[in-house]
Specification:
Elements: H1 3-27, H2 31-53, H3 65-72, H4 80-94, H5 99-108, H6 111-129
């Protein structure tokens, strides 16, 4: 197995794990972390695409989802719905970590909203796999 393939697999397996974690957080009604884990799922899938497409380049240390999709060269292929999901998920990575933002995020992340995030994340992850 070549190095690029193993890095790609690492990121995609991590994405799958984080999606499973998002589902577990939904079951236990830990809604703040549903959003965080959905962000992590897509971030890691995008990093998997990046290392597959750019095996000689250093993986950028960034978390902004649209920026990562740009670096992967797939932004133009994303639908408006997919871009909206990236915009929705993006702040859930950083803001979930800071106490001043947690209460506001917690109010916006209802059970129904979290179910929608997981459904959208699952669909986007499936689509991203086609870009490997």
């Amino acid at each position: 197995m070549d190095e690029a393939y193993s890095k790609q697999e690492y990121w995609m397996e991590s994405a799958d794990y984080d999606l499973q974690t998002a589902r577990a957080m939904l079951e236990t009604k830990r809604f703040l972390y549903v959003g965080f884990m959905c962000h992590q799922t897509i971030e890691k899938a995008l990093k998997g695409i990046f290392v597959a497409r750019h095996p000689e380049e250093e993986l950028p240390y960034i978390h902004r989802l649209v920026r990562l999709s740009n670096l992967c060269g797939i932004t133009e292929e994303l639908s408006e719905e997919q871009l909206l999901l990236l915009d929705t998920l993006n702040p859930l990575n950083i803001e979930a970590r800071y106490p001043t933002h947690k209460s506001l995020l917690f109010r916006s992340l209802t059970e129904e909203r979290c179910k929608e995030l997981i459904t959208g994340t699952e669909a986007l992850l499936t689509w991203l796999r086609t870009k490997l």
